[in-house]
């Protein structure tokens, strides 16, 4: 009975037993590596590096990916760690040299987070590999033993990762995308069949349940809904493709939602579904279903050419409909729904393109993007992708560089203080600084009290244990594996205080096996942790103390400013007064600031925040910027307005289109300025609620519309794109307005 209660308690505290499995796995690897080196090889030096190699990458790091990817990551960590270990050993003879090395290594290694979860997850382990040998004694002759011990520790950890309670695999982002694609395909099938015979949506049927399923599946593609280790935030082609795939699928779901629910202009009533859209929706559903199968490795991706053919066929059917449909409300309702169907097809095309990169990122592709292609990176070599990502974040406005500089300064100063005070176990000073520092001073301060309280409690226990057990290693050798399990699992199961306490006892038992130790060792550990914590909180308070909270508004303003310029260029292209090249030039800065804003937003959400800022929904801003970029890029598929002579044919309509485009551009710029100035932008927004219907009604009543269907269709689609941007502009006013404003759902 007690055993069952204990198991239920454990499952409540550790769902899936992930922390318990990890603790057992790391404990077995660390114990085996340490015992082999310390007692079989009779090398305390090798034993030290074996156990810290295991702890560094088994406890302080998060090695993510598939089993094969985790093994490759650990092998890479051994190669890079051997270099850092050598450098630390050679610089240990001088406090100033070791501190300078710590500063450089701290910045460079922490900056690895720019490469995504796989690299960012092992940064702390690599820091530890330099920290450990950078303290006296200066003994370059022990370098071979150090490397051997480090190799044994990493090898045992890699082996345990594959055979001893291996981590349960997370659902990959590609699997989430596959589920979303299939759910949306099912919804499209239900939508195409949900007619009363004249094209109007009727009844509830299967569409409502499938709509809920599609909304849920698409929502799981948001970065905040994705586990940290599976977020597609790296610079490589696969991660970029995954990010585009998720955004495109959310866009498809959002446009389908418009067809099912209408919008503000219809009072939430269902809109008319064009009877000529059935084939298009069926082709789109088929493409999404095949995409889902390919993402799961069960088939081939659909050909983009097939989607282009479906889009061309739908365009021809729309042209025929324009020539025959009446005027007034009937034409407006048909045009509004047809715009959404066309946008569904365009977003599906982007999703299929992105999926080709996700499924086979190494496949050779054309170097230069053509109109309608995803972006420049599709055919770029991996080195170019990495260099552009690194170069983009070599700015003091980048939270990645800010975090790296803050941590590097903290570790460098901690090494200098430990050397200046001649602390006998200065390693613990830097280890405290490394593990306690966060991306904002508020978050760092929150870790301080539990860390010191836990260390003090652990020091008392360790002092008593060392006094009772004496100098003999036998007791400590027996206790080591048990304490190793406790130290790894305690933080997850009992909280930060228990984690620090058990780790303090563990290191006392470890060092007691390396050299004779007394109760004073525990007091040294407490002193070192306090010194490291003080250094960490001091540097954190002096160097970008606000973290992501201090940058999120500025980065949002910059991203929206670049978006305003992009909207202006896209609007000029849509109205015939600009060129494709102007849109392409504005895409690069928009992508750049989106990259900054996305990184800042994710960090902002991970920090302890000031409650008054929690009313700002920055995720809405992020989604708006994403959609504006996607809308501008998709406009490359449209024919050149100059070839249609729209201005000569309907100068009043084109003038109205340009007026609406300018109003939108001014609105986006006003939001960006308001954010930069630090006040709510709601007062400067003036987008009519009937923005799209007003334009479509004017177009439906225009003379010559039936005689020139291609030109009419061009204007309908242009206003459709502007209408999407207008919806987002209104949503920005709600999201960034006063806290009393009720939130409004935003289409994906």
Automatic annotation (TrEMBL):
Tell me a GO cellular component.
Answer: plasma membrane
What is the official name of this protein in its record? Answer: Putative membrane protein YccC
Keyword entries, A-Z: Cell membrane, Membrane, Transmembrane, Transmembrane helix
Asked if the record carries the keyword Transport, the reply is no
The residues covered by the Integral membrane bound transporter domain are: 416-537
Report the InterPro entries cross-referenced here: Memb_transporter_dom
- What's the chief localization of this chain? membrane
Q: How does it sit in the membrane?
A: Multi-pass membrane protein
Q: Pfam families under this entry?
A: FUSC_2
Q: Where are the transmembrane segments?
A: 23-41, 47-66, 73-90, 96-114, 448-468, 474-494, 501-518, 524-544
């Amino acid at each position: 009975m007690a055993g069952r209660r204990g198991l239920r308690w454990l499952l409540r505290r550790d769902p899936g037993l992930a922390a318990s499995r990890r603790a057992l796995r790391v404990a077995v690897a660390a114990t085996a590596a340490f015992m082999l080196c310390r007692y079989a090889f009779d090398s305390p030096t090798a034993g030290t590096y074996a156990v810290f190699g295991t702890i560094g990458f088994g406890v302080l790091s998060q090695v993510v990916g598939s089993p094969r990817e985790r093994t490759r990551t650990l092998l890479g960590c051994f190669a890079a760690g051997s270099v850092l270990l050598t450098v630390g050993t050679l610089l240990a003879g001088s406090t100033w040299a070791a501190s300078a090395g710590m500063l450089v290594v701290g910045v460079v290694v922490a900056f690895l987070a720019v490469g995504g979860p796989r690299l960012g997850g092992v940064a702390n382990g690599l820091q530890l590999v330099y920290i450990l040998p950078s303290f006296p004694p200066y003994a370059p002759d022990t370098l071979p033993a150090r490397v051997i011990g480090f190799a044994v520790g990493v090898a045992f950890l890699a082996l345990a990762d594959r055979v001893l309670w291996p981590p349960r695999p997370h659902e990959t982002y590609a699997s989430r995308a596959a589920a979303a694609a299939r759910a949306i395909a099912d919804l499209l099938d239900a939508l195409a069949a949900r007619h009363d015979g004249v094209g109007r949506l009727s009844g509830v049927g299967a569409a409502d349940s499938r709509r809920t399923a599609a909304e849920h599946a698409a929502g799981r593609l948001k970065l905040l809904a994705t586990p940290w280790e599976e977020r597609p935030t790296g610079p490589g082609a696969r991660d970029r493709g995954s990010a585009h795939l998720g955004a495109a699928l959310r866009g498809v779901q959002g446009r389908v939602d418009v067809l099912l629910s209408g919008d503000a202009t219809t009072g939430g009533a269902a809109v008319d579904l064009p009877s000529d859209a059935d084939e298009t929706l069926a082709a789109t559903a088929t493409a999404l279903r095949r995409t889902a199968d390919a993402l799961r490795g069960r088939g081939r991706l659909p050909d983009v050419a097939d989607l282009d053919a479906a889009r061309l066929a739908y365009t021809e059917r729309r042209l025929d409909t324009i020539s025959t449909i009446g005027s007034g409300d009937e034409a407006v309702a048909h045009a509004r729904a047809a715009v959404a169907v066309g946008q569904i097809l365009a977003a599906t095309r982007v999703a299929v393109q992105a999926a080709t990169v996700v499924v086979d990122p190494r496949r050779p592709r054309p170097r230069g993007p053509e109109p309608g292609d995803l972006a420049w990176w599709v055919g770029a070599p991996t080195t170019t992708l990495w260099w552009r990502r690194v170069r983009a974040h070599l700015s003091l406005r980048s939270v990645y560089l800010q975090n790296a500089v803050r941590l590097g300064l903290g570790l460098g100063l901690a090494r200098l203080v430990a050397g200046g005070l001649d602390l006998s176990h200065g390693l613990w000073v830097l280890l405290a600084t490394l593990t306690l520092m966060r991306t904002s001073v508020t978050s760092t301060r929150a870790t301080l009290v539990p860390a010191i309280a836990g260390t003090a409690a652990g020091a008392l226990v360790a002092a008593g244990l060392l006094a009772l057990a004496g100098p003999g290693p036998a007791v400590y050798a027996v206790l080591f594996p048990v304490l190793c399990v406790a130290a790894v699992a305690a933080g997850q199961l009992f909280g930060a205080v228990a984690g620090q306490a058990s780790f303090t006892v563990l290191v006392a038992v470890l060092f007691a096996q390396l050299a004779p130790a007394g109760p004073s060792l525990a007091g040294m550990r407490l002193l070192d942790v306090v010194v490291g914590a003080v250094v960490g909180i001091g540097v954190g308070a002096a160097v970008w103390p606000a973290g992501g909270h201090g940058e999120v508004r500025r980065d949002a303003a910059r991203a929206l400013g670049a978006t305003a310029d992009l909207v202006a260029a896209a609007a000029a292209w849509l109205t015939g007064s600009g060129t494709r090249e102007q849109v392409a030039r504005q895409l690069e800065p928009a992508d750049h600031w989106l990259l900054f804003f996305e990184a800042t937003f994710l960090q902002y959400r991970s920090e302890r925040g000031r409650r008054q800022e929690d009313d700002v929904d920055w995720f809405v801003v992020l989604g708006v910027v994403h959609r504006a970029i996607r809308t501008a890029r998709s406009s490359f598929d449209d024919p050149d307005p100059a070839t249609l002579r729209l201005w000569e044919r309907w100068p009043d309509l084109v003038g109205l289109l340009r007026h609406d485009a300018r109003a939108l551009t001014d609105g986006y710029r006003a939001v960006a300025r308001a954010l930069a100035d630090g006040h709510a932008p709601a007062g400067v927004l003036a987008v009519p609620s009937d923005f799209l219907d007003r334009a479509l009604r004017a177009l439906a009543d225009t003379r010559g519309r039936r005689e020139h269907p291609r030109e009419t269709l061009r204007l309908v689609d242009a206003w459709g794109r502007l209408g999407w941007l207008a919806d987002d502009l209104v949503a920005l006013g709600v999201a960034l307005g006063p806290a009393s404003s009720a939130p409004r759902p935003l289409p994906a």
